[in-house]
Description:
single chain, about 675 residues, Substrate Binding Domain Of Dnak, Chain:A, Domain 2, Rossmann fold, 3 domains, 6-stranded parallel sheet, 29 helices, 18 strands, about 50% helix, globular
Amino acid sequence: MAAEEAKEKQAKTYKPEEVSVDTASIKMMKKAQAEGIETIFDRALVMKPCNIGVEGICCKNCSQGPCRLPLTKKIKEGLEPDTRKGLCGATPETIAARNFARMVAAGAAAHSDHGRGVAETFLAMARKEAHDYTIKDEQKLLEIAPYFEVATTVKEGDEEFPRDIFDIAVEVGEKALGEWGKQQGEIYFAKRAPEATYENWKKLGVVPRGIDREIVEIMHRTHMGVDQDYRNITAQCTRAALGDGWGGSMIATDLQDVMFGTPYPLHGQINLGVLEIDKVNIIVHGHEPLLSEMIVAAAQSQEMLDYAKSKGAHGIILAGMCCTANEILMRHGMPIAGNYLQQELAIITGAVDAMVVDVQCIMENVANVADCYHTKLITTNPRAKIESGNSTIHIEFDEHHAFEIGKQIVKEAVDNFLNRRPEQPILIPSERENMVVGFSQEAIKYHLGGTFRGSYVPLNDNIINGRIRGIGGVVGCNNCRTIHDSAHLIVVKELLKNDVIVLTTGCNAMACGKAGLLTPEAARVFCGPGLAEVCETVGIPPVLHMGSCVDNSRILIAASEVVKAGGLGKSIADLPAAGSAPEWMSEKAISIGHYFVSSGVYTVFGVTLPVTGAPRFQKHLFTELEDLYGGMWDLVEDPYEHAAKMIAHIDKKRKALGIDKARDRVLMDMADRQKLDAA
């Protein structure tokens, strides 16, 4: 009997080398197995996904169900008619569209609620009620104010004078916060899109009226017995997703830049090797930088450094996890411990004195793992408490006392340094990579022309002359149903060797950093000759780290800047560009994907997409949307084929622009680009 149990246990044990390509993670998985610590990789082995749910055709929107409508082989092959219906008569298309829409609503709510929190803090800062925050980038505030119809000058007689910067900030904050509750009209930032893209949205009636309104309307439409036309449901998905990408997320990014500084390139390090055994190790994990900015300030204060020294520590290491990591890395060069699937593994090192979390992508099981070590898990947001775990404490964040709360959290970590368990060996992997990060759209413009001649024109010229084939936006989460980081890296490397420059955010950016792709030196190793030449000339990495997942709005603005620079069409849909999320897992990714599709970008997802059980709805997303918006969805699980389809789409767009043929390399002026536009 004992032999049978041992055999069964062995059969349910995964091999770390088969679930991740990251060697630091593999080392931690082996340590977890040796110490009997359960992680997401163990649970993925024994818990398989629901086949019907994966296809998007399980409806539980009322208590008469759940109604499950499996797509049989005969229906799929056209051997029998598709007569599937739920109890109320809902078709697979209605059910899949409702499920898809609710994912868009949840994803848009997550990023937009982040934006709302930033707007509230920004307004408190502008009114001088939150004294620990200030305006760090006045120029960015002056640039975004006109989009909110806020004047930056004041007239006195016949003369105009600059307006007080805090007066501008108050009005911007009020207008920004009003975007959530707006009931009529249009969100302000819709007009930041290229004119042709915006006019197409107006023609189709999908310009968002207000951020919250569109999310609430999705929830109403998908209630039992309301909207039962998958095309109509999809149109509402578009309004909500655009309200996220061109509203809540974009506002979050811009106001964070004003308060904390717009990112410009700087050096950083990544992977679990950034932790140090003789220092207090604090990991900040989540997505909102309002608190993490204060923890950075507190951890670097002389008071806290002296306090750590009094406890026998040689300093304080503050490292990020998930998208909070990208936020503090982009602005402060603070190291990154890892991406989504490494959060449990960081604690397993035995060296983490505190993991501080706010919202989104935080596994509940980190509390259980923390209980196995000395680590304190500190929750900070009233929207995101964790019930389980003896090591979990709650220290609620309040922007009005931000720095003091930051110091309180750092003090908890320092005090816990003395509680490390001598019977548990600490194992910190040696892996850590250098990287160059911080490529906001402003930084890209600066790199392409300097302070006085900053412009996207050199990028366009090199796309037109063929050195750069096109642009790939590769973003998104990790997913334990795939090999950790593998699909990310295969897709990115395939694009690079085919001269496609890559813009990245989120967990994909971290996967690229760990693999050494975020350095200028990577261009010579991984790129085709044209892209390598450009990167070496300009001095940039071939993969440009643009920030956290909320910063996908930076990619939208960068795409708009490319259109404005001329020569590559009139809308985002005309660009030789494609989007990708090879290992997506969260509902936020669906909202992001849909606002890119609706903005005109061909967008490929890996792993799965919960629409495959409804063929007509899938065709609408994968084919028909291109006729409406110029962008469309696709699902390609194999990462090599995934990249190949992106490259084929880029080539299709090059051909449509008339730049697909080999040509002499000439410097193009605006007149040349205008001729291409007119063609």
